[in-house]
Design brief:
Growth Hormone, Chain: A, 2 strands, two-stranded antiparallel sheet
């Protein structure tokens, strides 16, 4: 019991300290803005480096398959272990994180993820010593552990925005923060991809671990738990908002669970994540096998969607706050349709480089907006601050169960439609898998229409 009590104490929300005498003066406001900005930077950059540790395997699939180490079905199974563990972990950790010291919580997850990536790199160097079946089991278990630890990243990061920024600016900062997904994916394709090309897939995992260590340092020095722990009043007082509800966190979380609108958004996000992870997980292989792209060109084309996604996420919160007065419904519909159009262009638009670059550019912008809106902000908008993590947990478990199923289904469909040519070469037919991806993208923009009359909290 003593150990459990010590752990709970270590991760509990920081105790408030006596309020600064200048808290309501100009110097106190400058102090608040400095800490808020530091927390924002730590959450955004730290979570982008979380993503490098999460998406590293996606960059290595082709080299691993070509080496004969594992096949597409094996990689689909291993990838799904991360996503299923992430889904369950995000639900649980989302609820737990509402009660936690967000700095310590976020560092713990990234430390475990870093250790897993490094371990897989070391195991890859001795791959010949282990039977394939044993290797698949070990990789699946470790990648599942990585999934759980990854689920400790976004809840504290987004809760930090809720604790440090007023409602009137939530969309703007949430949108910029959401670029961390795309920045992390871009860094993974660019940095890890080049490490793999130069040194081999085993060292790609080591490169991801290095990125994780950098993220831990940034979070440790720059992320702050609550304004009260720094001698400042709560954000509601700083921003002159109405006093937060007096109901306890557990009661509010139960109310969130019983809110149908949150579950509708969770299902819409789930469908969106199928198309998102389909491209991230299989886009490079699709370009290489279905369109004959060289590996370097395929990685570059797919990485464009992550880079352009930064543009979409940064603008999404700002223009929905400014142009739509915090209403995310219309832009979510517009960019949901654009997401489907971009997928159709990518799948059926031919082999020309410019067509595929255009498709991935449109996909990146649309996905950047949708990750921000469907992936969390629209749900956070309709729940009280104390239940931010709970809303994210519900959306997260639906999203990543769907993403995990996508990896299994896509891997199975790709292998099931693969034939071996006369000279022993693999010939892939992606038609069934790509149809699955496109239908999911259509469902993702139709479902939120059921919430059309539901307004965000004022």
């Amino acid at each position: 019991m003593g150990v459990i009590s010590s752990i709970k104490k270590f991760y509990s929300i920081s105790a408030p300290i006596p309020q600064r005498e200048d808290a309501e003066q100009a110097s106190g406001q400058r102090y608040y803005r400095s800490l808020a900005f530091q927390s924002f930077v730590a959450a955004t950059v730290g979570y982008s480096l979380y993503y490098v540790c999460r998406t590293s395997l996606n960059v290595m699939k082709k080299p691993i398959i070509d080496s004969g180490f594992l096949d597409a079905a094996d990689l689909g199974l291993i990838g799904s272990c991360l996503l299923f563990a992430y889904a369950i972990g995000k639900a649980i950790n989302g609820f737990v994180c509402d009660y936690c010291n967000i700095k310590r919580f976020m560092i713990t997850g990234l430390a475990v993820s870093t250790a897993v990536n490094f371990t897989l790199g070391m195991l890859g160097l001795v791959e010949s010593l282990l039977p394939t079946a044993v290797t698949v089991v070990i990789f699946a278990i470790l990648w599942g552990i990585n999934g759980w630890s990854q689920s400790m990243g976004s809840p504290p990061a987004i809760i930090s925005l809720s604790r440090w920024f007023p409602l009137s600016k939530r969309g703007t900062f949430y949108g910029i923060f959401s670029a961390s997904h795309n920045l992390g994916e871009f860094l993974s394709f660019l940095f890890v991809g080049n490490v793999v090309l130069v040194a081999g897939w085993q060292y790609g995992f080591v490169g991801s671990a290095v990125a994780g260590v950098i993220g831990i340092v940034i979070i440790y020095f720059c992320l702050h738990d609550t304004p009260q722990s720094k001698g400042l009043p709560p954000i509601e007082v700083i921003a002159n908002e109405k006093t937060a509800t007096e109901e306890d966190t557990a009661t509010i979380q139960r109310q969130v669970i019983r809110t149908p609108a949150v579950w509708i958004l969770a299902c819409a996000s789930a469908a969106m994540y199928v198309s998102r992870y389909a491209i991230n997980s299989w886009g490079v292989l699709f370009l290489e096998e279905a369109k004959g792209f060289q590996s370097a060109d395929a990685v570059w084309v797919v990485s464009i969607n992550a880079l352009l996604g930064i543009f979409g996420t940064v603008l999404s919160g700002w223009f929905s706050d400014r142009l739509f007065k915090g209403d995310r419904r219309v832009p979510a519909l517009i960019f949901g349709v654009l997401n489907t159009i971009s997928l159709l262009l990518f799948v059926y638009g031919g082999n020309a480089m410019w067509v595929n670059v255009l498709a991935m550019s449109l996909f990146g912008v649309a996905m950047g907006v949708l990750i921000c809106f469907l992936g969390g902000l629209m749900a956070v908008d309709i729940v009280p601050r104390k239940a931010t993590g709970a809303a994210l947990g519900i959306v997260g478990i639906a999203s990543y169960i769907a993403a995990g199923l996508q990896d299994v289904v896509s891997g199975w469909l790709i292998d099931a439609n693969m034939i071996v040519g006369a000279e022993g070469e693999r010939i892939y037919d992606f038609s069934s898998a790509t149809a699955f991806w496109i239908v999911a993208s259509i469902v993702s923009f139709l479902l939120p229409l059921l919430n059309w009359r539901r307004r965000a909290q004022s």
